[in-house]
Amino acid sequence: MDNLIKFTLVVTFIYERPEMVSTMDRWIGYALKSNVKHLKIQVGPSNDDENYKYCVPQTVLNAISIQIFDLVNLIQFRATDIVHFERLKMETPNLHSFTLQGPTWPSILKVASLKNLKSLHIFSAPITDKWLYEQLNKFPHLECLSLADCPMLESIKISSSSLHKLRIDSCGNMAKLHIDIRNLYVFSYYGDIISFSSNNLTLPKVNLYIKSNNMDNSWYTRLIKLLDEFNQCFKMVTLESDTGENYIIPCEVRKLTPPPLHNVKELKLSMTTNRHRPIAELVDAMLWISPHLESLDIINFNVQSSFKV
């Protein structure tokens, strides 16, 4: 058969039958070889148990022939480099996790009826400030949001009453970030200095990896201003770095500005290389940034130095 108009695969019960997975893969492979235009896959019942789950092959998302793709009882959706889809519409009320990765996206992407979505992860994608703002308003139960390497994000505002974890990584053109998330537990930011603001945010845990190719005195002054925004985080602040140099505030800058994290009691410096600055210099830098520390951890690979202040 050269062309198949529609292929529907319904498997209502696959518990403790792993051989069904390979059989389903073969059936779907047959449909793809037959240039199927409308593919529908239904696996049930909807359940969080791993034994009830089926992972759709990536070849389905890359298929040239598919025009309509229906997934029923979908709980987790992850797609990398969706090349051939012109239109993708998501109406999956049971979806818990949604991940999109890659610079190639459908020209029309609509997500609706995702009322139970808990995790949203977007990597290397051409999303805009407007698109992100509009989509986040549709997810009342979202708990985890990750945005990485999204070059079109410039100035974003995130408001949520349910979000617990927020991670922003290497969004190179982002200049402003405002968050109004009263139940946020962990905030992670990786990139250059941005304008950050929040509505009376109190965070139990903050992870920051602030880096730049031009670390002059004006950069360090702006770094202190950014760190000051997290002074209300009383439990734990983690500063990440390659060598620790980006957190060693020059003496001339220290004379002009007060320490930014004077309310923080626990501070951790985590480094990714063994070419770090001398420990004594790093300890001095951390004690200036947080002069009222009770504990300080300096981690380099698997070596950890702990200090009680």
Automatic annotation (TrEMBL):
Pfam families: LRR_At1g61320_AtMIF1 (PF23622). Transmembrane segments: none annotated. Residues 96-223 form the At1g61320/AtMIF1 LRR domain. It comes from the Eukaryota. InterPro entries: At1g61320/At1g61330-like, LRR_At1g61320_AtMIF1, LRR_dom_sf. This is At1g61320/AtMIF1 LRR domain-containing protein.
